[in-house]
Amino acid sequence: MPPMSKKLAVSAKEPTSEEDVLRFASVAEAIAMLLKPHVEVVIHDLKTSKIAYIANNISRRQVGDSSLTDLKDIGSLDTDVIGPYRKTNFDGRQLKSVTSVLRERNGPPYGLLCINFDIEPMELARDALNMLTAFQGSGKQPSALFQTDWQETVNAAIAGFLGERGLAASALAKEDHAGLVEALEQEGYFAIRNLVPYLARLLGISRATVYKHLREARQKKVQARAT
Questions:
Q1: What is the pLDDT of residue 121?
Q2: H-helix or E-strand containing 205?
Q3: Contacts of 76 (CB under 8 A, 6+ apart)
Q4: Average pLDDT score over residue span 153-178
Q5: CA–CA separation, 198 vs 217, rounded Å?
Q6: Residue 142, strand partner residues
Q7: Which of 99, 98, 96 is nearest to 123 (CA)?
Q8: Are 93 and 80 in contact (CB under 8 A)?
Q9: Does residue 147 or residue 88 have the better pLDDT?
Q10: Which of 11, 47, 157, 162 has its C-alpha lying 20 to 30 A from 113's C-alpha?
């Protein structure tokens, strides 16, 4: 049998681009099926710098789209497992991501398998539980709450917020909602058990949005204390 040509010998050792990364398509589908609807699994082909496969698409990307954004988020490919790290989806939802680098034994990487986990529902549930447990503690409440109906007190606080900024409740933008929640949190009003649904109804937004603004306000508070 004639010896294999040098060209054929090299091509036999080198991974083929699309075929090799697509060997992991069933792995991607299995992970996505187990954690659906919260997890997306994306396979990237590093030879073409394009997406080769998506299981449970929550990012609205398509096969063939560029992988450059993901590569920028990941950074170095020196290790076989990268993360977890935080990403932001197209709709603003926060994702917890981890990446497996696909490579031949001791060889250069030729693909990535990225698992993107939508953590927002879990964060909202955590915040709701934190609200309930915080109410049972001995946290200080505004003194005015003991002098009048809490709804009237909250209404007065909202009116003060609007008056200082020259705003109308019906014309509040998203950033105004966040600012109002932050102001009420600073004054301790979220110790009131029913404030979240009451505020959501007044502002015409969902409870989830109120919890999201509250989480961001508390993160700012923690960061301010740290500095």
A1: 82
A2: none
A3: 82
A4: 81
A5: 18
A6: none
A7: 96
A8: no
A9: 88
A10: 11
Domain ranges for the chain, please list them.
6-118, 122-226
pLDDT band at 92 (very low <50, low <70, confident <90, very high): confident
For residue 157 the two structure tokens come to: 């606080």
Instruction: Give dist(CA 17, CA 64) in Å, integer.
Output: 13
CATH number of 6-118: 3.30.450.20
List all residues 6 or more positions away from 120 whose beta carbon is below 8 Å from its beta carbon.
93, 94, 212
Both tokens assigned to 86: 């935080």
Task: Give the three-state DSSP class for 83.
Answer: strand
Nearest to 21 by CA among 125, 91, 111: 111
Residue 158 is encoded by which pair of tokens? 């909202």
How many other C-beta atoms lie within 10 A of the C-beta of residue 120?
Answer: 18
Q: 162 falls in which pLDDT band (50, 70, 90)?
A: confident
Among candidates 156, 176, 175, 169, which has minimal Cα distance to 204? 169
Report the alpha-carbon distance of residue 129 to residue 131 in Å, rounded.
5
Indicate the DSSP class of residue 194: T
With bands split at pLDDT 50, 70 and 90, how would you rate the model's confidence at 28? very high
* Amino acid in the structure at residue 51: I
Is the per-residue pLDDT at 115 higher than 90? Answer: yes
> How far is Cα 114 from Cα 71, in angstroms, rounded to an integer?
11
